[in-house]
Each structure stands twice: as structure tokens, then as C-alpha cells.
């Protein structure tokens, strides 16, 4: 993994609605993604993790802060050609492989739609070659190109979704719960594929998920988000071994471990936001140890540092 | 033709003895002129007071199998063979809705996967629970309302009076699932069938709902038939586990036996593909291929085509059950004395090693409290 930062969010906020009805889905969030690493965003539904992914894709406008791609700001007003270039470099993989593929198009078209839009080929033969290469890369046969999505199983469809993203030669993949809809036996295949792409192609991933067992296996760093706020961000193993924020602890205690002995003795930690006393000192995003950030007041931080 | 309403044997069943016994059940569906055999001669025993988990991937027939105990198969489905004995009544022979009403809801109740669709959006939540409570008992409206309020409280919904009048859309996902559980337990059933009750929920909520089901089971003395594909959830809930593949139970045993001493290659594969057991940076074990089509008759062992360790005999003859211990059995030729020695995958061994260490330590410690200390440190 190199140290080059390709994507960074600085104090980013996303607000839906305005005036009295305004709702801050993402509140003052900062993080970055290095080249060739997997950063995971975990949190429960409604915490704003998907909104962050969409804000980076410029689907939702942000209401505060900035998002940077390498050295250029990509939030707010961006000129047309820059936006176009960006859309090619950042691709997305969606949660539900049943819903994210056009049922009426053949795989050949689904995979090459981006190529058509960006005119990334000169001859028909070149386009075909690109589609074939993408299919092979995700472990599908080139002859599948002439079939329709309904002829494939869930795991295969998810691979088609990944092939469609890869054919654009992206640098960052935003994967929004890509394995939640898959069966246990298929899940391992897709996890392996994502890991291999990271290793072989040096791709970066922003992995959005709620299944912490998978997240631990594939991430380099993990960010925990609660109600639109990042509460903790740390290298994967550090977060699992030494979680400090009470919400992170609650989340980790809720993950079922496939070991009856541990699982039957475990007691559940329930997070109660009322336990923080932020009336006097406002909490801040603080670096606890190198690379391990947590959101808390000075007093809490001092307690966690032990 | 008129069918008799089943008469249940009222004798109390002591904890640990068999309450529901399914024997050689076969369930078929008619689909576009073809016959799909979803459950192929599967047998199962549910004991009083225990939690039995059925594990398997989608399409393994686990839901269909459980639903057949409630007479909830789709129209095109039927039980084409076998028996399911519950308190002297063969559930597989029940035909009419009238007959089922004596069982379903009253004796055997179900919690569904998706709380969004299990509740009626046009009726207040409390009313739906009241209906369920009143359906099987002669009770005036006020009495059943009090039962419903008690149920709401029991499943951990605060301010039951206010919540009673609210509609499902005013409930969060976790609260909705609690309400669904309240309707299921309103009649005090003996068996609670939970079909992936937490798959649609967040991990934090999932943990709470699992805890709730566990507590209710203990307080009400129910037996729980828990269907899931998540082995973490199984580890938390199950006393015993039945692993299903392609419409059959392939391995059955106590929770410890399945997790630490599995014998069927499919169970190995399931355990080995868990990311929790994988080593970071290495490939996870993945099962290749897909489950077989159940439209065709399956020859030999259904898992053989996906099993790299398959023997020749697996493709020819269906294996019988081999008993591993009095409570543990597996349906694989590997356990036949004539079979070659086949090692289980490394990842699964790691789990197994843990059990061995524990046994050795327990003997060494033999009550000195060391074993307890070890348990605390391992957490």
C-alpha cells in the first residue's frame, strides 16, 4: 500500500430538506482513502453511510466541507469535463444484484454501457475484447455475454456488476453492501474476488457495510459511523482489539461469533447516547494513537488513552 | 368429505423428550408443469424446551420444511410422503384449514423474516395482537385487549397503552419485529418457528431480538425451531443443529458437535467459508458451483459435484446416516469404515483444536476453577 491519498473528505456534511425540516444525514465527517487500500464504513441503517458514498459520486450535493480527488476539489461546482473524467475513475457496486442490472439488456450491453458513453474503444473488436477481459477477470466465461441477467445466480450477477465497474478502469470502487444479499457459500467467492482486485490492480475500495465479520476480513481501516457522525476510525485490527468509543463496543458485542462457547457467554452491550456529558465541553475528533481517531470530549479521551 | 378436527394428546411432555417428530418427509411443488422436490426424505426431532437450528443456504428447503409443520405451504405444494407426529397427531395428514386451526397459532406459531410484510399496515398494532390472542380463545374484547397489552410489555415495547393504538409504519424495524413476536406468542404456543427473524435487521437490533427470543423461550418453556443461514446466530441460539443441503438433513448434532467436530464435507465447507475463521491476506475457502436443481432426481450424494473430496461412491449411491455419537449423526460415505481417511480443512481444524484443548484443560483443572479462568481470558 502506498501513502498516496486519492480521496479525502474534509468536514463534509450532507443536509436533506431545508429550513425547519432540514435533516443532517452526514455531519462534519472527515476521512481519506489511500491508493490500494480498503476503507470500510460501518454503521446501522440510517446512519448515513450510503449517503457518504453517494455524495462522493456527486449524487447528493454536500452542504458543508469539501471532497477532494487527489488534489482537486470535486464537491460543489465542477466543470463538465472534470466531472465526466471523475465518473470514470470512481465506480460503484450495488447491494442488490437482482435490481441493479437491466433485465432487458444482454450482459454484453450491460458491461459495455460505460464504454459506449465514454467512447473508450475505436473498433467493435476492441470493445468485445474489453468486455471479455472484464468477464474473465471476475471469473465468468466470455460466452455469457450473449445472455440475459435472469439466467444467472445471485453470485454471478454480483460479478457482472463488478465487471461493469472494472471495464471502466476505475481507481476507486465504492461498494455499497455488495455481499449482504448473497448466500453464505457465494459470499466467500465475492470476497475473494474483491480482495484479488485490490492486490492485482491496486484498486482502492470504499466499502460500505454493516456485517462486521466481513469488514474485518477485507478492510485495512474501518470507520464507524453513528447518526451521521464518525465516532471512531482505526486500522482494522486495532479497532477490533481495542475499541474505545462506547458505540463501537456496542456494535462489536452485537456481532455474532460462530463459536457456541464464546457466543453463549457473551453479554450484550447496549449503547446509550445519554452516557456522554457534552454539556460543558464539546466533543472533538481526536487522534488517540497514530491512525486511531475517536470522537469524544477531552475528559473521555483522557480516560480512553489508558 | 368431512375431515375430523385433530385431537391432541394433552399429556405433558417433559423437557428433553421428543415433542415433534418428522420422519422421512417429502415435500413437492408443481411448477409450470414440472415437479420440484424441495424436501427429500428429511427427518427431524424437536424436543421439548430446546432450540433446534436448521442451517442451510437458500433453496436448501429449510423454510419449506418448517412451514409444513404449520400447514403453510403454498397452494402448489404438498407433503407427498412421510409423517410429522405432534402430540399423537400426524401433521402431514391434515388437509383442511379447519383442522389446521387447532394447531397453527395455538400450538405452533411462527415469526417471519420480514416484519414489514408480516403486519397489516391498515390496522393498529395492538389490534393485530389482540386478534391473535382472541382467535383461539373465547374471550371478550376487553380481556383480549389486556392480553395484548401484556404481550406488548412482554416483548419489551415501552408504553404499551400508547403503542397499542399505533400503526406499523410508526414502529421502527426492530419494534415491528417485536410486535410480530408478540402476535406469535399471544396464544402461548408450545413451538415457536422462527424463519430468519433477524435477517432484515441491523446487527445491534438483531442482538436484542435474539436475546428476547431466548428469554421468552425460557420464561414460557417453548421449543424453538430456528431457521437461519448465519452461523454466528446459530452459535448464539442453538442447543442442537441440523444442517440441510438440497432438501435433506445431512448432519445433525449438539451445537458443540457441529461447530467443533463436524463430519460432513458440506458442514466443513460452510464453516470454512466464514470470514471470521479466515486469515487476512489469504483467500477464503469458497464452495465452487451451485446447489443442484431439485427438478431432477439426484443420484448419490447431492453435495458430491461441489465437493473436491468426493469419493466415487458419492456419485453412485446415496449415503445413509452414520452415528458419530448418541446425539450426532452425519450422512456421508466418509464415515463408512471402508472409506479412505479424509482430513477436514485446516480452518475447521482450528475450531476443533479449541475443543480438544478445552477437554484436556478441564481434566487437568478438574474443578480447581482454572477452566473458568480460561473462559474469561478467551473472551
Which structural class do you get from the secondary structure elements of chain A?
alpha/beta
Strand content of chain A: 15-25%
The two chains with the largest interface, and their residue counts, are: A-B, 43 and 47 residues
CATH architecture of chain A: 3-Layer(aba) Sandwich
The total count of helices of chain B amounts to 13
Shape of chain A: globular
Global mean pLDDT of chain B: 86
The CATH architecture assignment of the domain at 1-107 and 189-344 in chain B turns out to be: 3-Layer(aba) Sandwich
What Rg of chain B do the Cα atoms give? 22 Å
Stretches with pLDDT under 50, minimum 5 residues of chain A: none
Assembly status: heterodimer
CATH superfamily of chain A: P-loop containing nucleotide triphosphate hydrolases
Task: Please indicate the count of domains of chain A.
Answer: 1
Provide the spatial order of strands within the biggest beta sheet of chain A.
6-7-8-3-9-10-12-11
For the termini of chain B, the CA-CA separation is 61 Å
| Shape designation of chain B | globular
Strand order of the largest sheet of chain B: 6-7-8-3-9-10-12-11
CATH class of chain A: Alpha Beta
Name of the CATH class of the domain at 1-107 and 189-344 in chain B = Alpha Beta
Give the count of helical stretches of chain A.
11
Structure description:
The complex is a heterodimer of chains A (306) and B (379). Chain A has 306 residues and is an alpha/beta fold. Chain A has one domain (5-304): P-loop containing nucleotide triphosphate hydrolases (Rossmann fold, 3-Layer(aba) Sandwich). Chain A contains eleven helices and twelve strands. In chain A, strands 6-7-8-3-9-10-12-11 form an eight-stranded mixed sheet, with helices on both faces. Chain A has a four-stranded antiparallel sheet with strand order 2-1-4-5, with helices on one face. In chain A, a hairpin with a 2-residue loop joins strand 4 (64-69) and strand 5. In chain A, helix 3 packs across helix 4 (124-137). The two termini of chain A are 30 Å apart. The mean pLDDT of chain A is 89. Chain B is globular. Chain B has a domain at 1-107 and 189-344: P-loop containing nucleotide triphosphate hydrolases (Rossmann fold), CATH 3.40.50. Chain B has helices spanning 62-67, 97-101, 115-118, 125-135, 141-154, 160-164, 173-185, 203-220, 231-237, 255-260, 265-272, 346-365, 370-378; strands spanning 18-31, 34-47, 51-55, 77-86, 89-90, 108-111, 191-195, 223-228, 240-245, 248-254, 322-325, 328-330. In chain B, 33% of the residues lie in helices and 21% in strands. Chain B is built from 13 helices and twelve strands. Chain B is an alpha/beta fold. The interface between A and B is large, with 43 and 47 residues.
